[in-house]
Specification:
single chain, 285 residues, 8 helices
């Protein structure tokens, strides 16, 4: 059955894309949050760093940390072949804007006085190089992500949330230990293609986006989708009930509504607000 969207009056142009109704009963148009416009590149740099620091705090709250594994990067808007990363040995829950490390395309630390994770550089540098449209990338060893990665298979399109990754996630099945060389990063970047996510077999999850907010939300959603898949697979095996796979037409339609960069950015804003309130903005220093 073909999908259909029914909207009230002339809301199709705006609300169909935002999944919201944006007018009051008096006809006043309400503003939906969107990625800000900046008066200078320095202002945008600060914004990216603040949201990168916030993403680490959000990841810590959700248990995505494990020792020195895991990293998030964001491209610098001024030195566009440089990117910001977390210092090697600092816990996600403690990272502030002032702790972030700027590295160039050769792996040299340009700003900061702490080393970075070698695997982080090997993976992120090649992704940023291969994908000029990608400004941020997230990788961590989340529990459900690494559990599902052991199967080395893509997700089934069995829930609405899974459709965020319809035809936009791939499996990297060439596990060769810790990714310490750039050739490994090149292979991962090639596997990712133009997608937003990769399941790294026997390893974990990787997501990318045009903003760190988008990439971080995709990671959170992908991990939950892996959890849901594991639960459904276990229930199906135990009960004998067959999974119902969402059809391609419905999947594509839904992906176009919930899987865009704008939706990823918007979905993260509530988490940013939450961590800002809980920490009283301590990560901004």
């Amino acid at each position: 059955m073909a999908p259909a969207a029914t909207l009230v009056a002339d809301e199709a142009a705006g609300s169909a894309n935002s999944l919201s109704f944006g007018r009051t009963k008096d006809g006043k148009k309400l503003k939906i949050r969107s990625y800000p416009k900046f008066e200078s590149l320095e202002e945008e740099r600060l914004y990216r760093k603040q949201h990168l620091a916030a993403a680490f705090r959000v990841f810590a709250q959700r248990g995505f940390d494990e020792g020195v594994a895991g990293h998030i990067s964001v491209r610098d808007p001024i030195l566009t072949d440089h990117f910001w990363l977390n210092p090697l040995s600092q816990h996600f829950s403690q990272i502030c804007v002032s702790d972030l490390i700027l590295v160039n395309e050769d792996g040299d630390v340009v700003v900061g006085d702490e080393p970075i994770n070698a695997a982080a550089f090997a993976i992120h540098s090649e992704i940023h190089k291969a994908r000029p449209d990608v400004h941020a990338a997230c990788h961590a060893h989340s529990v459900y992500g690494k559990a599902y990665s052991a199967f080395g298979r893509p997700l089934d399109m069995i829930t609405q949330d899974a459709l965020r990754f319809y035809n936009s996630h791939f499996v990297y099945d060439n596990f060769g230990g810790i990714a310490l060389d750039r050739e490994e990063g090149m292979r991962i970047a090639k596997c990712l293609g133009n997608g937003k996510a990769a399941i790294l077999q026997n390893h974990g999850l990787l997501t990318v986006g045009k903003s760190v907010d988008e990439a971080a939300f995709w990671f959170m959603s992908l991990d939950k989708t892996c959890q849901a898949q594991l639960l459904v697979d276990a229930a199906s095996a135990g009960s004998g009930h067959k999974k119902i796979i969402i059809g391609d037409e419905e999947a594509q339609f839904t992906h176009d509504q919930i899987g865009t960069p704008e939706k990823g950015w918007l979905a993260f804003q509530g988490y940013y607000d939450e961590i800002l309130a809980k920490t009283r903005g301590s990560f901004l220093k």
